[in-house]
Design goal:
This protein is of the alpha+beta class and about 350 residues long. The chain has eleven helices and 15 strands. Strand 12 (about 285-295) and strand 13 form a beta hairpin.
Length: about 350
């Protein structure tokens, strides 16, 4: 069984080994072990706070294969972007250029640098070991974050964004960075993305503030603006089906799109329901759902659940054990995939 849980201090070595497999363009994962240790410590503090308002805290999750105790994936929620260090992005804006004398009317797109200080919540740092791709594992790793947000909405902003990995070539070169950022920063793309995890000050110091007209960029750079890396296309499709949309913001380094959604309108949040555990059985003949506890010691996985009267439910012993659930606890459940019909209000009577 695979579960997604809150990161623990003991995970640092296994997690660092895992993220060494991450390719160029996964900016938040290209960090030193000391920086990862610091992020884990910040996450532990965030999870331990009984009450917390969004102030940029990272909530780091890992996916564990319980059959062998291996850490096979990670993801995170950053409660707020901006603040002490602003969030930088390019916004694509259109302008009309017209000449009646030449009978020419041209719509031109340009990149406008945006410096955001009071931003939304952000999801990111999603990575799954390649041998675990498929079978819904990546979807579970990603969607578990929204169940946590549904359980603790006060810890997050009302809007959430996801910066998607842009097009980076096999040699680590970003076509957009080569055409734009490299001329101002005089460093290669991998170095720039590493530095951006340490400080954003160099962006404010060197990034041009004037609009960049997209038609003036090389064709190779134009073609990747707002596009994702091929390995990121499944993640993008998942977010679109969950209610995310593109609002013309792209990453300043690789041009990847930033996807937006209102947290309350994300399908996982909107359709998830809370139920009280009335029975724990050896086996349950029910629908397989994504289930989580409602604890800050967060654990989430797939399990079968049968709804009972008065918003009660029965779950099997293995699921209860793996998710740290006991009789009388409340859980939150939702179908892993959109379009699956499930109504917790429908119930069956207890059958002993």
């Amino acid at each position: 069984m695979l579960i997604v849980r809150a990161v623990q201090a003991a995970d640092v070595d296994a997690l660092f080994d895992l993220v060494q497999q991450a390719e160029f363009g996964l900016t938040t994962l290209k960090i030193s072990k000391d920086r990862l240790q610091e992020r884990i410590e910040q996450s532990l503090f965030a999870f331990q706070q009984k009450k917390a308002r969004p102030a940029g805290q990272p909530y780091v999750f890992v996916m564990e294969d319980l059959t062998n105790g291996r850490i096979v994936g990670t993801s995170a929620i950053y409660s707020k972007v901006g603040g002490f260090e602003p969030f930088y992005s390019y916004e694509i804006e259109k302008s009309v250029h017209e000449s009646k004398e030449l009978n020419v009317c041209k719509v031109v797109e340009a990149l406008h640098l945006r410096e955001i200080h009071d931003g939304p919540t952000e999801i990111g740092s999603l990575f799954l070991a390649p041998e675990y791709w498929g079978h819904g594992h990546g979807r579970l790793l990603s969607m578990a974050r929204f169940l946590f947000m549904a359980c603790f909405p006060q810890r997050f902003e009302k809007e959430v964004i996801a910066e998607m990995r842009g097009v980076v070539l096999a040699d680590g070169r970003s076509p957009l960075w080569s055409a734009l950022g490299a001329h101002f920063f005089q460093i290669e793309f991998p170095k720039a993305e590493t530095l951006s995890n340490e400080s954003k000050k160099f962006i404010a110091d060197l990034m041009p503030e004037h609009p960049i007209y997209i038609p003036l960029l090389p064709r190779e750079a134009q073609e990747v603006i707002g596009k994702v890396h091929p390995h990121t296309e499944p993640a993008l499709a998942i977010l679109r089906r969950e209610g995310f949309e593109f609002r013309n913001l792209v990453d300043i380094f690789d041009g990847g799109p930033a996807m937006h959604a209102e947290v309350a309108n994300v399908r996982i949040v909107k359709e998830s329901q809370t139920l009280t555990i009335r029975e724990i059985r050896e086996d349950v003949d029910g629908q397989e759902l994504m289930i989580c506890n409602q604890s800050l010691s967060f654990r989430c996985g797939l399990g079968r659940l049968q709804t009972l009267k008065d918003r009660g439910c029965a779950i099997d012993q293995v699921t209860a054990l793996q998710l740290g659930l006991r009789l009388g606890d409340t859980l939150r459940a939702v179908p892993l995939r959109p379009g699956v019909r499930w109504e917790a209000t429908r119930h069956s009577e207890t059958v002993g």
